[in-house]
Amino acid sequence: MTITTIDEEDIVQNILQDRPTIETAFKTYLSWVVARSLTSEESEVSYVPMYKNTEALAYVRRLLKTINQHKCEKNNSNFRSIICNVWNKVVESNQKPSKCLGRLALLQAWKGIVSSLENSEIGVTNNEKIFYEEFGLLMIEFKLNNTADVDDDSNPNLIWDSPGAELERRRKRRVDRAEKIKKRKDAPRIEDLTEENDLP
Question: Is the whole model's pTM more than 0.70, yes or no?
Fold first, then answer.
């Protein structure tokens, strides 16, 4: 790959250093989806299927295989062309994009990857399509350097932030909420502070 400008070199470095990798993100997503299916009542998650571990694992394996064989198609966007150059060089060197690249690269290749799955001989089932669509939405919704509002859990951050970062924020929020509840319970009540003969 020929680097022609400083800006292009910076983009390439950002793409190669982007973490977590695609594979790591999918492992987190798989764990989250299966845990949700095991701990939620069906009525609570009626908008998504209740995935069994073997089912979700099969979807992830199929998608990762497609990702690692995919050739990224360039368009008129210089930014996309740079990313596709990086992606295709990884594939041509017999390496796996899922192990080398992260969210920034996958965003550019995602539409083509899903299209390849849908247009394959076996196609995709409805459950499988929803599984991929939800992952795609979490990828799009994640904002770099966004740690979410202090009182909000963020599923995009759970998948795409530094490993364990969102879990640690959730743990801290639970601890903080528990401490606030304890302080409210331990606080003296007005009736305990006021003697009966002090009232008018």
Answer: yes
